[in-house]
Write a structure and sequence with these properties.
Two copies of one chain form a homodimer. The first copy, chain A, is built from 14 helices and 15 strands. Chain A has helices at residues 17-23, 33-50, 63-74, 88-99, 117-126, 148-156, 177-180, 206-212, 224-231, 242-258, 260-281, 306-317, 343-359, 369-383; strands spanning 6-7, 56-60, 80-85, 103-108, 132-136, 138-139, 144-145, 161-165, 184-188, 199-204, 284-285, 295-299, 319-320, 322-323, 332-336.
Chain lengths: 388, 388
């Protein structure tokens, strides 16, 4: 009774009551007119969210499912692809591609650092036979934002597909697919979109569709050509998670009512709040230069046990955050500020972070990190200019 | 305002309010202790539902997803399998197996008819090199119940895996996996389990696990060996549809509170209600002899348009039923009585069927089909002896 639980992880995220209640309605049938009407409305909203005139397909799967769909529908075994690997999800692109029998060129980037256009250009020059470039827009394991817009520009003049994992960026920071020139963009329901997990979203550019038409089918469940034919009938190939679809339609209505620009402005301002407060605390940001707008990662100093810190934050303050992954396990904290999270939730999370850090023996001199963070938030709301 | 909507399709089904409200709670994180506790409780309940001591795995996908998982994890391309094809979902086994590069022997059965053990035995004798036998327990497209118990017995003395689609039978009629000797049983959330679509469930026998360990991985997303390792930690391999898992745990609590036997008794009695009423109406049952307990299929006489009939049932009576599929499109009606459906809902559905049939020019002489159906229901509740 002392604390309300506050979910501040980089997905899943808290959900607006109005979405939860819409999803709590009794079931309707996925092949009847009422549902087709929802699908038609949803399709228009999804195209606005993705910034594309191409169909956006909803699959019953997690984010890894749509990543699998992208790899297996766009490339035939034996083709060469370049994978930017700067964290757990870059690694996942590589694993999926390898499992599908692709030849992989890995472009490794230190965790916390973004890939540069020069590095990618060099890799493309060294491997002119590469047919695909895979990257995360936001690498959820580190909080790094890769320069997708610039990378897209490089790939436009070459004969390869640019495939982007937007799982923790779509609905969080701008990533307009057609305007930037992305060939395949995927995302999941449980990050920026304020929904439970269980729905994967994917869209292809025209040239990606042309390529997909030449690739032999690999996994029966992930068949994007058949999914596209179904979207045109306001349907899905297989039985769809009806309640999540209805929830997504409501979520995107909230997005459209507010305007995408307002959502991005908010996410930018929350990021300024988190980063300013963390710096004021004297803690080290894991992604110093290129950072995503939906989570902030903090590297812990030696001697502070990240696992214990998270436990204290949860037990004493009701704040649920995520730790580091793989070699950063116990060495980092990731505080999520995506989905249905506002400035007051995040301020609570930052206070829990500071107090838990102190309780683990860490030193924080600042007594006004919250005030400074909140000032940065207000200022960012006013000065946000829409650039990434 | 005249009619309440009544969803009487063979999935998705109406949902109990208590499940919908449990799922409407705010999100919790899938890697934290509170969720692991749910997963542990759920695992015990799932094993009871499946009648197995082996782990039951929950995947973020539709029923076709777990069918794909079964095929790709248990068989290597090039292996020979026998597929019983007596409807749209038998056909689906064949398509998935073919897509995976298996050599298929199709055992075709007329729609509405169950396969016989003699037919299967002959196929097994003719193809001693077959490594798998695929069947539906309940073929949702026709309402036929295949003799899974007897087929399992045949396969026990042979070196092949018996793979059963229980999508419209698990939680509807008995199908105890270990006791009968089923090597792989799959189901989905949106049929007997009173949940929205979006979750697939799958369990393997010990000998199926032994086989799975020898099969090279095919589709990155469907990796049952890794899923099993995660179940042991009360986790899932990838992000799981948290709200559906919480709903499933609540659903199975309802099953366990009532007792599985009570659920089967109810489903048997509902089936007697539907079949008695349909026969009293003078209509033809599509599956005359071997029928599933979750839906009843009616073959329409020439001159009655099934599409129009469904429209009238929906518009004038608020009753949503399903039509025939493929060559039975417009020629059959499938009335679902699975999930959160009781005798009064079904009686309403049967009345809507009769009146819509009349409105389409069909003749029904009986004026007491409902009373006779309901008497059959009450009697069946009392005389049900647990045999399939």
């Amino acid at each position: 009774m002392l604390n309300k639980p506050r979910l501040l992880t980089p997905g899943p995220t808290p959900l607006p009551e109005q979405i939860r209640l819409v999803m709590a309605q009794d079931m309707i049938h996925h092949r009847k007119a009422a549902f087709k009407h929802v699908m038609a409305e949803l399709q228009e909203r999804l195209q606005m969210l993705f910034g594309t005139s191409q169909p956006v397909m909803s699959l019953a799967c997690s984010g890894t499912g749509v990543m699998t769909a992208a790899v297996t529908n766009l490339f035939a075994p034996g083709e060469k692809v370049i994978v930017v690997d700067g964290g757990k999800f870059g690694e996942r692109w590589a694993k999926i591609a390898k499992g599908h029998g692709l030849e992989i060129v890995t472009l490794s980037v230190a965790w916390g650092t973004a890939v540069t256009t020069a590095e990618v250009e060099a890799a493309l020059d060294a491997h002119p036979d590469a047919r695909g470039l895979f990257v995360q827009n936001s690498e959820t394991s580190t909080g790094v934002l890769h320069p997708v817009r610039e990378l897209a520009a490089i790939t436009r003049t070459r004969d390869l597909l640019f495939v982007v994992d937007g799982i923790s960026s779509v609905g969080i920071s701008p990533c307009p697919m057609d305007a930037w020139g992305i060939d395949c963009l995927v995302t999941g329901s449980q990050k920026g979109l304020m929904l439970p997990p269980g729905l994967g979203l994917i869209a292809l550019s025209e040239r990606a569709w042309n390529k997909a038409e030449t690739v032999p089918p690999a996994c029966f469940y992930f068949n994007l050509l058949s999914e596209r034919a179904n979207v045109q009938k306001n349907q899905t190939l297989f039985t769809t998670p009806v309640s999540l679809i209805i929830g997504l339609n409501e979520s995107l209505k909230m997005f459209m009512d507010a305007g995408l620009e307002t959502v991005y402005r908010k996410q930018w301002a929350l990021t300024m709040l988190a980063r300013t407060a963390v710096k004021e605390m004297g803690l080290e940001l894991l992604a110093p230069d290129h950072f995503t707008w939906g989570l902030t990662s903090v590297r812990l100093p030696e001697g502070v046990d990240g696992g214990k810190l998270l436990e204290i934050a949860a037990d004493r303050f009701g704040v649920i955050m995520a730790g580091g992954q793989d070699h950063l396990k116990g060495r980092a904290v990731r505080i999520g500020h995506m989905g249905w999270v506002d400035w007051a939730d995040l301020a609570a999370g930052l206070h829990a972070l500071a107090e838990s850090f102190r309780a683990c023996g860490g030193y924080i001199g600042s007594r006004d990190y919250l005030e400074k963070g909140l000032q940065a938030y207000h200022e960012a709301l006013l000065t946000y200019d829409g650039t990434v």
